[in-house]
Amino acid sequence: MEKVLILPVWQYDEIRQVGTDYTDEAQVEAYDQRMQSLRDVKAFLGGLHWQAFAYALWEQILCAAIIITLLVYFREKYNDQGRLLKAMSASAYTVYILHAPVIVFLALGLRGVILDPLLKFVLVAPLAVSLCFLLSNYIRKLPIAGNIL
Description:
Largest sheet: 2 strands, antiparallel
Helix content: 55-70%
Mean pLDDT: 85
Structural class: mainly alpha
Low-confidence stretches: none
Number of strands: 2
Order of helices and strands: EEHHHHHH
């Protein structure tokens, strides 16, 4: 005698989902016909369709809302500078002038190191930023550069 497992009403049944009996070929065909209109996404991909216009409009509104939200959040939560950030802010123009030679110097110094370019960037970028700000801080303390920078 074969035992039949009877599932409670609340339990998920793989054979019968959302009112469609997937063992019955006619119901599967009817379901497939009903869902065909949802699978046609060509109108959303561009051209003179209202769906493409609505999607493009939604995308722009969402992006602008995210940008405004982030600006307001950071303005409210992180709108102060410590001692380090004040010094870095004051040195920003000097770093702008100085960064190109520092990067060239580091690139020439590390041309013999064989690494994946992305890994080399991840390792060298923090060093380059730190070196630029460190050098600019000392250059700004020179009496001649103090008035200019």
